[in-house]
């Protein structure tokens, strides 16, 4: 029997899952015609050939899912091809800047951005920077492209994620966890934003009532309120996460 996470390959040996073209298209949620089109556009690496049969692996499925995700965000196939090529080469990321712009931070943004070359980014993650992983980081919102550089949107997050990879967590697993964490973080931010809206700055943040853009004085008041309250919100979240980890670890030890 194949080990967990493995399946029988075309020659019957235990190994990573392989797909015929029809199986790959079905797993990726596309038609075989679309798959052939992507192959003709060289958006996929060549399959493994066994006689007249083409066998595809998990890396092909990941690439197809990346393409679908980027198309859903409005990117063109030509731009996706440039992105894949640029990050596969580990250089010349500026060729995709017109597709993946970097928005200006808000006036109350706290996280420090880090500008890196693609090679610098690869060094942070021990070379785990193939095109699928980099596109996944783009989808997760951790990085953006600006000119010839890659910009990580948070130094703290960059340092923490790099250290976690050094501890043995694969970058792909970390990015998947990051997307889940982002959803929880957005929910937590909603909680504190609602407190601001109800009790601190109701005249500025009342939903559906304000139509004009914030003036300079409004931005100043909001910034000052966030400077006072953000550290307290972070302290509360940190304490709750710490307590939750204690509870989970205690439960795991009790089961053991």
From TrEMBL:
Q: Does the keyword DNA-binding apply?
A: yes
Q: Name the domain of life this protein comes from.
A: Bacteria
**Sequence ranges assigned to domain HTH merR-type in this UniProt record:** 18-86
Name the keywords, alphabetized: DNA-binding
Pfam families given for it?
A: MerR_1 (PF13411)
Annotated InterPro entries:
DNA-bd_dom_put_sf (IPR009061), MerR-type_HTH_dom (IPR000551), MerR_fam (IPR047057)
Transmembrane stretches in the record are none
Cite the GO molecular-function annotations of the record: DNA binding; DNA-binding transcription factor activity
Any idea what this protein is called?
MerR family transcriptional regulator
């Amino acid at each position: 029997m194949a080990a967990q996470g493995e399946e029988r390959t075309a020659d019957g040996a235990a190994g990573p899952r392989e797909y015929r073209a029809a199986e790959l298209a079905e797993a990726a949620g596309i038609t075989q015609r679309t798959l052939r089109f992507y192959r003709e556009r060289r958006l996929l690496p060549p399959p493994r050939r066994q006689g007249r049969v083409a066998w595809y692996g998990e890396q092909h499925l990941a690439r197809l899912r990346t393409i679908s995700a980027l198309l859903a965000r409005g990117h063109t196939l030509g731009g996706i091809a440039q992105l894949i090529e640029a990050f596969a080469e580990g250089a010349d990321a500026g060729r995709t800047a017109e597709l993946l712009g970097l928005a200006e931070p808000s006036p109350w943004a706290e996280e420090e951005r880090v500008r890196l070359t693609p090679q610098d980014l690869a060094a942070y993650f021990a070379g785990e920077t193939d095109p699928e992983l980099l596109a996944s980081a783009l989808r997760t919102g951790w990085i953006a492209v600006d000119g010839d550089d890659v910009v990580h949107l948070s130094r703290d997050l960059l340092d923490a994620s790099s250290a976690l990879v050094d501890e043995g967590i694969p970058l792909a697993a970390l990015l998947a966890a990051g997307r889940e964490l982002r959803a929880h973080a957005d929910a937590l931010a909603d909680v504190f934003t609602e407190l601001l809206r109800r009790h601190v700055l109701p005249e500025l943040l009342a939903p559906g009532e304000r139509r004009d853009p914030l003036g300079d004085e409004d931005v100043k008041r909001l910034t000052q309120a966030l400077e006072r309250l953000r550290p307290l919100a972070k302290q509360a979240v940190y304490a709750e996460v710490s307590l939750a980890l204690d509870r989970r670890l205690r439960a795991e030890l009790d089961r053991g």
